[in-house]
Amino acid sequence: MTFQTILFYLFGFMLIASGLAVITVRNAVHAALFLVLAFFTAAALWVLLFAEFLAVTLILVYVGAVMVLFLFVVMMLDINFAKLREGFWRYLPVAAAVAIAMVAEMVLLLTSKQFGLGVASPGAAPAAASNVKELGRVLYTDYLLPFELASVVLLIAIIAAIALTLRTRKETKYQNMGDQVRVKSTDRLKIISMDAEVEKPAEPAAPAAEGGKP
């Protein structure tokens, strides 16, 4: 048994254990943290399969963005988890049937000869030095037009989301960038000519008489 095989079984056991902990623990924050561990373990398995790009993408996208959002939502919202777990045993048969169907589909896919499993040994390195380099080369040469179209679609989706959620409030003061760019120096500064005024000295008060009488 090679060192890579030992790491594979170790990471596989950690992935299964963390996945079971996600659906069995009662604390939602603990479940999210176990899901983070599952993502990290899956990334380690992808590194063993020479898919470092997928591993880095999994860590950056899911662990760095999605799971942080989940933790913020779970910790900031007052969710009644006891009420959510009321129908667990009622939906358990349907969930078990769906899980069995998913496992059967994965077994059929992985045992199919079309995927080429068993052609190369598990520890054999691919011909390319880095699949990230090869992926970039294929993405920006053969699939450049679909990549640019997908980028434009995502940009339009971002602009549409901002436009749909943008609301103007009367009590809020807004800045008009067009007016700020078109402004002139005369609009910013106004010089007023005023005549100089000389302040007259105050007259001295009359001295008071002796005895307090004038």
Q: Concise description?
A:
The protein has 214 residues and is an all-alpha fold.
Structure report:
- The structure is a single chain.
- By secondary structure, the chain is mostly helical.
- The chain has 2 domains: 119 residues, Four Helix Bundle (Hemerythrin (Met), subunit A) (Up-down Bundle), CATH 1.20.120; 41 residues.
- Helices cover 63% and strands 0% of the residues.
- It is built from 9 helices and no strands.
CATH fold-level assignment of the largest domain: Four Helix Bundle (Hemerythrin (Met), subunit A)
Q: From the 3D coordinates, which CATH architecture of the largest domain would you assign? A: Up-down Bundle
- What proportion of the residues is helical, as a percent range? 55-70%
Give the rounded overall mean pLDDT: 77
How many domains? The number is: 2
User: What is the terminal separation in angstroms?
Assistant: 123 Å
**CATH superfamily annotation of the largest domain:** NADH-ubiquinone/plastoquinone oxidoreductase chain 6, subunit NuoJ
Unreliable sequence segments? 116-125
CATH class of the largest domain: Mainly Alpha
Number of helices: 9
The outline comes out as: elongated
Helix/strand-derived category reads mainly alpha
- How many β-strands, per DSSP? 0
Biggest sheet overview = none
List keywords for this structure.
214 residues; mainly alpha; Four Helix Bundle (Hemerythrin (Met), subunit A); 9 helices; elongated
